[in-house]
Amino acid sequence: MNSELKSLHLIINPNAGTRQGRRFLPEMISIFNRAGYLCSVYVTEKRGDAVDFARAHAGEADLVVACGGDGTLNEVITGLQLGRHKPSLGYIPCGSTNDFASGLELPLAPLLACDSIVLGNPRPLDVGLFGSDRYFSYTASFGAFTSVSWSTSQNVKNVLGHAAYILEGIRSLADIHPIHMKVTADGHEYEDDYIFGAVCNSTSLGGVLKLDDSEVHMSDGLFEALLIPFPPDLLVLNRILTALRTHCYDDPSLYFLRASSFVFEGAPEITWTLDGEAAEGTSRVEIKNIHNAISLIY
User: Fold this and answer.
1) Residue 181 lies in domain
2) Judgement on whether residues 175 and 254 belong to the same structural domain of the protein
3) 85, 120, 155: which is the final residue of a domain?
4) What is the mean pLDDT of residues 246-271?
5) CA 195/CA 237 separation, integer angstroms
6) Which domain-ending residue is among 71, 95, 120?
7) What are the protein's UniProt keywords (predicted)?
8) What is the CATH number of the domain that holds 49?
9) In this structure, is residue 297 part of a structural domain?
10) What pLDDT, in 10s, does the model give residues 141-185?
11) Are 230 and 142 within one domain?
12) pTM of the model
């Protein structure tokens, strides 16, 4: 065996999306082998497995590759941050929406994603710290639509894909309630009743809301935040919907902010989602941009 082979840990969620990762696993390993990597495979069985493995073993590898959906990537990044490991990171997107991959225009076909990894260059990317020990790669959000990704069953996701999120988002409109929140962004305060809020480092939020490519830079040390106040009447609601549909985020009916840190103060029972996975909130949630926290190769 070639003693010059580099080490690669492939962390795969075999049940993500339509299970493409499982289907193409031998071919993916072959691509990495031909590129000079000795590939070890870790198959996750339950939530949290990827965090534990990455935290304990990512430091042993030259390259760590996450294969699965946005949630799998989130767990691997969390493990890297908790373990203070700095290997290059690759991503093979096999989820239902692949928001993170879409924001970076990564290949969505597994074998093309592998090619992109072995032929690509490492690029620094920011990561979000939520509270003291939770991380996110592209979004932390609350309010309308934020329960969509984790409340939609995997079977529905597999059959309908992107449409599943949109359908569940429409169904959740009837459950919208105002959430009183004081938001502090780099020292500037925005207190209001909101129906939705998101801190993001991506152009897509659950396949429901889209940000313009020119608005998002994923390694600038800043996050974008979109806050939607509760509409007092149908006229304002229509204005909000028009602004979202036309990507006019400077409309007075919305708050579109950029900052390196945010503090959200409100009711402790508010549920958040981090990269599509449910996260419990507290009465005070601090979100920080960890500048150039990971080195993603593509």
Assistant:
1) 134-292
2) yes
3) 120
4) 89
5) 11
6) 120
7) Kinase, Transferase
8) 3.40.50.10330
9) no
10) 888 766 555 444 545 444 444 444 444 554 555 556 789 999 999
11) yes
12) 0.82
Are 168 and 95 in the same domain? no
pLDDT band at 3 (very low <50, low <70, confident <90, very high): low
Which of 103-107, 188-192, 264-268 has the highest mean predicted lDDT (pLDDT)? 188-192
pLDDT surpassing 60 at residue 28: yes
Say whether pLDDT at 110 is over 90: yes
Say if 298 falls within a structural domain.
no
| Average per-residue pLDDT for the chain | 85
The whole-angstrom separation of Cα 125 and Cα 90 is 12
Give the least confident one: 49-53, 237-241, 262-266. 237-241
Residue 287 domain-assigned (yes or no) = yes
Q: Are strands 37-43 and 63-68 parallel, antiparallel or unpaired?
A: unpaired
Report pLDDT for 106: 92
How many structural domains comprise the chain?
2
* Contact present, 80 and 294 (Cβ < 8 Å): yes
Instruction: Give the bridge partners for 198, in sequence order.
Output: 141, 226
- Would you say residue 128 lies in a domain? no
Asked if 212 and 70 sit in the same domain, the reply is no
